[in-house]
C-alpha cells in the first residue's frame, strides 16, 4: 500500500457519497434528497471543499447512514479518524475484511470476513444478489473506466475493514490483474475497535 496524501474528513464524505450515488440500495436516497431540496448532484461530483455550508450539507446527506449522530453504519465510529489517500495493489485488496455486523457479507465469506473468500461464494452462487452490479463493475474495469475510491478503516494498516466499496472490490478481485492499482481512502484511529462493524 502506497500512501499518496493526507486528506480531510470532508473529502472522505464526498467520496463516500460518490461511491453510493449509483448504488441500487442507497443511490435513490441521495438523489431523492437532492431533488426534494432543490440541490444539484454537482454538490457531490464537483464539490467546493472550501465552502463550509456545502461541507455541512454533504455530511447531512449521510444521515441515511447515521454519520452525524453516529448510528446505523457509523455506530461507535470514532471522531478522531485521520484520513489518507492511498494506492492499493492486488495483495492489499486480498487482505481486506468485510463489515462485522453485515450478516449478508459475513455469510458470503463463509464466516472468515475476508473479502477474497466471497469469490468462492460467487463461483457457487453466480446469481447472488450483487451479481449484476459486480458484473457491471467488472465490465467497466476491463474497459479502463475509473470508480470512486474504496474506503477502508482500521486501528492501523495491519487490519483494514471495508467501510464503502464491497462490490467494487469484489470486481477488482475477479479481474485479478497482478499489476492492478486501485485508489482508496484509509481512515485510522486507535479507537476503531469500538466501532460496531469493526
Describe the protein:
This protein has 198 residues and is of the alpha+beta class. The chain folds into 2 domains: 8-73, no CATH class; 79-194, Alpha-Beta Complex (Conserved hypothetical protein from pyrococcus furiosus pfu- 392566-001, ParB domain), CATH 3.90.1530. Helix content is 39%, strand content 15%. It is built from 9 helices and 5 strands; from the N terminus they run βααααβααααββαβ. The protein has a 5-stranded mixed beta sheet, sandwiched between helices. α1 packs across α4 (52-61) and α8 crosses α9. It is globular.
Low-confidence stretches: none
Q: If classified by CATH, what would the architecture of the largest domain be?
A: Alpha-Beta Complex
Helix coverage percent of residues? Answer: 25-40%
Number of domains: 2
Total helices: the number is 9
Q: What oligomeric state best describes the polypeptide chains here?
A: single chain
* Succession of helices and strands: EHHHHEHHHHEEHE
Mean pLDDT: 95
CATH class of the largest domain: Alpha Beta
Structural class: alpha+beta
CA gyration radius, whole angstroms: 16 Å
